[in-house]
Design goal:
- Keywords: Nucleotidyltransferase, Transferase.
- GO terms for molecular function: 3'-5' exonuclease activity; DNA-directed DNA polymerase activity.
- One of its GO terms (cellular component) is DNA polymerase III complex.
- It comes from Paraburkholderia graminis (strain ATCC 700544 / DSM 17151 / LMG 18924 / NCIMB 13744 / C4D1M).
- The longest helix is centred in the C-terminal third of the chain and has 21 residues.
- The protein has 17 helices and five strands.
- The protein is 52% helix and 7% strand.
- It folds into three domains: 189 residues, P-loop containing nucleotide triphosphate hydrolases (Rossmann fold, 3-Layer(aba) Sandwich); 35 residues; 114 residues.
- It has 347 residues and is of the alpha/beta class.
- About 6% of the residues have low confidence.
- It binds zinc ion.
- The site of zinc ion (ZN) has 9 residues, from helix 3.
- Zinc ion (ZN) binds next to helix 3.
């Protein structure tokens, strides 16, 4: 099933049915359910007793195969890291699987699962699109996330996107079209996915048993799935503690931050800091924070105390740190330095 806020996208998309594009690029903010939408769309295209609005019937042999994860005319291609994490490997080509596995065995213990879609995976995929349909209907490929394609993989895919075999439909899903090769984008029909209205998102979160839905939704930039993940985030206590430190402005204890946060990934803490800084600026400029509305009073106080030029300097430091955040760094030192820098804003 698609999410309730996607009904409009679904219905508008059905207008393409007479001349369905061979490659569709579904893009939009992370955390709004684009992957599930793509998978439902794939099921609809493969269903052998499709409803009038393109909905899969849920009962035919094709639908059953799809749900069980073994429709012979369907492939989903995801980075290894995601396949391991979310069990999304379904339908991945055997050969690519084996290649990856051999790779993994060789580099055991030292090699982290790849976050990229690699050329071996695309080669496996091209074997799949090269043979005919098993059921005589469409063959569907979901690529997620499309920005995960590394250069070699993207180039290998390009030829097929230029001259696609009849009946093959590519559904590319991306939250970062700015990271896609322009040549890939130009061969796809682009489809921007709508953001849910705050009402629809809040209602859905409440139905999932999430309390404080509006605050979490604000922090998630309006993306309901991100808000849901935040609700069950094991680091939430530390995050709330960090926000209190930031709210303390000149009293922020940088060394305590280094100590308490040292086990957390640098990008996670940088994300908190960056959103807090964004809100300080928003509070100052527009009188309304975006991510932490519940901290509005503290933001107002901090914004009035901070020095404007120090502010700009500190933002540059944070941005610089983001650029190297995936490199192995001493997290404790990085955090100490950042929070010391933060405290100096109020000196
Ligand atoms: Zn069906």
């Amino acid at each position: 099933m698609i999410y309730p806020w996607q009904a409009d996208d679904w219905n508008r998309l059905q207008q393409l049915r007479g001349h369905w594009p061979h490659a569709l690029l579904l893009h939009g903010q992370a955390g709004i359910g684009k992957l599930r939408f793509a998978q439902h769309l794939a099921q609809g295209l493969l269903c052998e007793d499709q409803r009038e609005n393109g909905e899969p019937c849920g009962a035919c042999v094709a639908c059953n195969w799809f749900v069980q994860g073994n429709h012979p005319d369907y492939r989903i291609v995801v980075p290894e890291a995601l396949a391991a994490e979310a069990g999304l490997g379904y339908g991945a080509d055997d050969k690519a699987d084996k290649a990856d596995k051999a790779d993994a065995d060789e580099g055991k213990k030292t090699r982290a699962p790849s976050k990229e879609i690699k050329i071996e995976q695309i080669r496996g995929l091209l074997d799949f699109v090269g043979v005919g349909s098993h059921r005589g209907g469409a063959r569907v490929v979901v690529l997620y996330p499309a920005e995960g394609l590394n250069i070699a993989a993207a180039n290998a895919l390009l030829k097929t996107l230029e001259e696609p075999p009849a009946g093959v439909v590519f559904l590319m899903v991306s939250a970062r079209v700015d990271r896609l090769l322009p040549t890939i984008i130009s061969r796809c029909r682009q489809w921007p996915m709508s953001m849910p209205s705050p009402e629809a998102a809040t209602q859905w979160l409440a139905a999932q048993g999430v309390s404080e839905a509006p605050a979490l939704l604000a922090e998630a930039g309006g993306a309901p799935l991100t808000a849901l993940a935040l609700a069950s985030d094991e680091n939430r206590t530390l995050r709330d503690w960090t926000l209190k430190q930031l709210a303390a402005g000149p009293e922020c204890d940088a060394f305590a931050c280094g100590e308490a946060l040292q086990k957390l990934p640098v990008p996670l803490v940088l994300g908190w800091l960056q959103r807090w800084m964004y809100d300080l600026l928003a509070q100052r400029a527009a009188g309304a924070p975006r991510y932490f509305p519940q901290a509005s009073a503290a933001l107002t106080r901090c914004a009035s105390q901070a020095d404007a030029s120090a502010f700009a300097r500190f933002m540059r430091t944070v941005t610089r740190q983001r650029a190297v955040e995936n490199h192995p760094l001493n997290a404790r030192l990085v955090f100490e330095e950042l929070f010391l820098g933060y405290r100096e804003l109020f000196a």
